[in-house]
Amino acid sequence: MAGRARVTVAVLMVLSLALMACGNSGDDDTSTPTSDRGGGGGGPVSEAERDTFEPIEGVPGVTDDAITYAVIGVEANNPLGICILDCYRAGIQAYFDHRNAEGGIYGRELRIGPVLDDEVAQNQARALEVTSSDDVFGVFNAPLVASGFADLDEAGIPTYSWGIHGPEAAGREAIFPSIAPLCGDCLLRSVPYAAQHAGGTRVATLGYGATENSRDCANASAASIEEYGADLGLESVYVNDSLAFGLPNGIAPEVTAMKDEGVDFIAGCLDLNGMKTLAEELERQGMGEVPMYHPNSYDQRFIRESGDLFEGDIVLAQFLPFEAERTEALDAFLAQMEENGEEPSELAMVGWINADAAFTGLLAAGPEFDRESVIAGLNSITDYDAGGLINPIDWTTQHTPPEGPTNGYARECAALVEVVDGEFRTVAPPDRPWLCWDNDDPGWHDPEPTSFADD
Q1: Are 120 and 73 in contact (CB under 8 A)?
Q2: What's this model's pTM, rounded to 2 decimal places?
């Protein structure tokens, strides 16, 4: 089990870095969920239609009073040390409470049923519990080992997941990650942009060697520096794609090698704890001022508790950062979390986004819904954005990862924050927090600060 967890965590870090290729969107086009299908392309929905009750028989998890979902995630044996299952569930519950306060949907409440700890290695077993039950309509799934995706998809169960398992989700029409599946070797303009923004010129990229995905991550970052570096005064001078997960023997030799190469910016495909170990060694060797790029450290408490280790670093957020100018969707999330006595977190926001996808599928299916029509409904939407919280996804095409050096999103958008006095601040203006590049032009050009509310 420990071995599988290590492999999965490596995948986690890589896919988090891969998110730089897509970014996420924050905007005021939150489309009050009562008047628009989750901000996506499903079209307006009238209050009368949303309130329409139709008797439904024979659909698992659906009664006259409620639509019930299972939640699967990691609690026991969690190697990351971050809150996963509890925080994920809290975000889903907050969204359900928000919608139920508006009257629910089709005369029914949205409810959480069984909450299942997959203990890292038991995701398939928990998925099979769901497929054999008639008590749940769909499932929310935040695993580290996504071994249950195939069974849930084959059973035709609407599944909404943490967007870190692109290969496992790819091609599965019933699996809806919070981020669309991406190619592992796509060029990422956000990496060289971050290096330039931080004042770097000689760049190192680091990754774990446990998986092909992690190696691809480090090499894709280096290739991005090589591809766009001439335009920005950057050079890739050190690449290490074979670090041991968790850095059990430290990282002193590698830091010495980077010091010898004059490295002044580091892009890491590492987990949050790995980045901290790296930062501590940089400090020890007199390189503490070298800024780093974090794909997986959007955790304000962790950053604050680490003192000044991460000062000046740049961090990728998977969604509209909490530090951005408030939008209707972000306000709704923060207000409901506060009302529920819960702390906003990355996994809570992922849960909220997944819950919005479930709600959007129901709206698209209409009041006489079943699992098949909900899946088909969401798969008909060409610009699903969770009310402006993520980069719009075209679910008619983006179950399949793109091939080649471009990604499947219309624009490459990254939501970057930097650490200033121990706090996160958006790199782009707070009212236009997304840095976006048009993918019709794969060459270097300056990103456009974007709010999807303006689209």
Answers
A1: no
A2: 0.90
